[in-house]
Amino acid sequence: MSTAGSLIPPRTQQHQAAEPAAPNAVALARQGRRDRLLVLSLLLPAGALLLALLIIPVGWLFYLSLIEGGEYSLVHYERIWTMRSYQNILWTTVKISVIVTVICAVVGYPTAYLLAQLPGPLAAVGLAMVMIPFWISILVRTYAWLILLGARGPIVPFLQQVGLTDNPFLLLYNETGTIIGMVHVMLPFFILPLYANLRSFDWNLMHAAASMGAPPTSAFFRVFLPMSLAGIWAGVVLVFVQSIGFYVTPALLGGGRVTMVSMKIASNIQEYFDWGAASALGVVLLLIASSILILAARLIGGGQLWGTTR
Question: Which pTM does this prediction carry?
């Protein structure tokens, strides 16, 4: 005997099944729109802040760099491209930044490697020593280097006594003193991201390599070093990008004989009131920094560079 449900035509059954589903779909769509509006409302304050503090100033910088005498012009960029003085300033900036980055890498890698192998309490003490410079103003540290590297400081008189030099300003008011001061300021920016990378390294991999017959040197270069490249690149990017825009230390330790881009920007504004030329140099610095970031992201992957992947 057939049941009562079997007397209902198939199309009627499908229509009855679809009736409760339609209101559910509408409710889900409405809820989805509310969720998106909620997320958008939460992002609006951050977006407004980003617009006010980054997008508008950078846009204004680009605009000023294209204005000369009230008209649109590329004369400021042409000046950077053709004038020898601007080329020398750019070359000096890049050269010093590269040297500082290399020295920070050479000094910072063994330091971070040592800190990563220390037990917790000793590692905390070591990190505190690395971070002590952050507690002191850059201006104070730079004046300290003026004393240490000066003719009456402890370094130059010692070099004179042993007969290595008779120049009282061997380490001051030149590129050497500028590099020394910048390395002191920038070194923690290399050590800290590299230490964070090395601290998460699984040291059992080194034991596994040793158990398979790999000598310590081979295990280091084939296992440890490749897995620390993300931390190295993060430190390199931080140090180099900050170095190309550094101002205080080159201005004081360079003594006016070392001119970097940031100092030329300040000079264009303070002495010549030429906002267009200063803005063009700022745009060039921004492009250099952006190029370095994009190159590093392509070489090691954006997720590793920004720490979004493990």
Answer: 0.82
